Every structure is written in structure tokens, then in C-alpha cells.
Amino acid sequence: MASFSLAGKTALITGGTSGIGLVTARELARQGANVVLVGRDADKAERARTAIQAAAGEKASVWVKCYDLSLIRNVQALADEMLQEHSQLDILVNNAGIMPGVLHITEEGHELSWATNHLAPYALTNLMLPLLDAAGKARVVTVSSIAHWVGEIEPNRETRNSPDKYSWLTAYADSKLANILFTKELAHRLDLTGITANCLHPGMVDTGLIRTDTSAVMKGLWWAARPLMISPEQGAQTTLYLATSPEVASVSGRYFSNRRPARCSSRANNPTEASRLWKISAEETGIE
Description:
This is SDR family oxidoreductase. Belongs to the short-chain dehydrogenases/reductases (SDR) family. One of its GO terms (molecular function) is oxidoreductase activity. It comes from Hymenobacter fodinae. By secondary structure, the chain is an alpha/beta fold. The chain has a single domain, classed as Rossmann fold (3-Layer(aba) Sandwich), CATH 3.40.50.720. Helices cover 44% and strands 13% of the residues. It is built from 10 helices and 8 strands. It has helices at 19-30, 42-56, 72-85, 112-134, 157-160, 168-189, 216-225, 232-235, 237-244, 271-285; strands at 10-14, 34-39, 62-66, 91-94, 138-143, 195-201, 255-257, 260-261. Helix 1 (19-30) packs parallel to helix 2 (42-56). The N and C termini lie far apart (37 Å).
């Protein structure tokens, strides 16, 4: 992929300490962007910062923010820091994702994959709108998945959190469907601004998506599929394309795969569902 200068631009990447996020942060830094990477583990984040600095050169600007974004209060704290420390944000990559494998309810009462994969991007993006707008031309890129095809939006939090109804696959798929519906509604709401919003399926990537406490069945399926997976370097290419390429500078509200617009499910194309999801997300995060 051709290299474009991002000198003077600022990029925020969630889940930027490993996998697709780390490759994305590294390549944006190589192209001259001031990079802010977000991760949960301080030691891992510092190792990532050091690796990016080594790859991008001594002059590269790389900042680390350590937050567990499954908690909305942490998303708010991250946003407050960004608003205090930066005057604009040119690229926001909602990359952090998780596939818990077992039912886990956060301290704030949300199923973990829903909280991390959807509510966090919804909240962070909305809180970053002042900085994105200040950039004049800004891009929001959200990592979704082909798994969205079997997803549904469950409006009832109690049902989402129910041990009797929980399935690790459907919980993940639901959150990935939410990523696309959120992107489409966001693009609609930002239609008259200089901010674009797109999402993508990165491919079947060999990353640290699954947790160490996940089920034995899920771990077995993951390891069985590993020979078919692509590397994080390959998986990051569509993210980087949407974040930097002039070809998509005016494209918004689309779902991509392999750096091309891709077909998504009928649910993902439903504007009524997108509007309904926005209302659910606003109620559950307290952020409109």
C-alpha cells in the first residue's frame, strides 16, 4: 500500500498494544502521525510504545493511555484526557475487541463483549466529536467482522445478560452487527460535516481476541482455525486504507473488506435498526 504523509495529524487507536491495533499504530506513526494508543495493561502498552518508536524513528510521537474500555467511566476519563491534551483528532480507530467465551457482566452491568465492542466505540466516538470536528477533515474507522451476519440487536439488557440466553458466538456477532449499524447512523448524523465514518471486516486474523478464561470448546475451535488465519500485518491493511487513503476521503457509512466495499447483512442495512440501536446505546451509556 502506498505511503501517505500524516505529518501534523493525530491518531487515536484503541486496542493498540497488540495485533491489528499495534500494526495500525506502528504504520500511522511511520507515516508521521502523532499516535495515541490505548491498552489495558501498562507494561504491554509500554512495550508497544517502544516497538513503535523503534520502527517509526526517534522523532515519532507516541503516547500511551492505559484504560479498560469495557467501563464507560473509563471511556469518559480517556476522553477528558484527550480533550485536555489535544486540540484536534484526525483519525479515530475503534479497534479494541474481545470475544469473552464465558458470560461476564461488567461492574456497570453490561455483558462484556457488548460493552467493549460496541458501547465503548459509541461512547468514545461521540465524546471525541469536538476534536474530530476541529480537525476539519477527520476519519472514524471501526473494526467489525463478518460474524455480523448472524447478529441481532437485543434491546433488553436483562436478556443480553441472562446466563440462560448467553452464547459467546451470538454475543460477539451482535456486537459486530452493532458496529456496522453504529457506523451507518453516525455517517448519517455527520453528513454535513468533514468527518467520515466507515467500518470493516479485517479477515480471520490470528490475534489475542479470545481471553485466557474462555471456554475449552472455544479455545479448541480457535486453535483448529489458526492455520487458516492471516497475520495482523495483513489484517490491518483495510483499517489503514480507510484511515489514510485519498481514495476514500469522501466515502462514509460503508462496510469494507479487503480494501473494497463489501456486502453486509440486511439487518446491517436497516436504517430503522440503526436509529433504534442509537437510542439503546444513548440510554445505556448516558451519552447522546
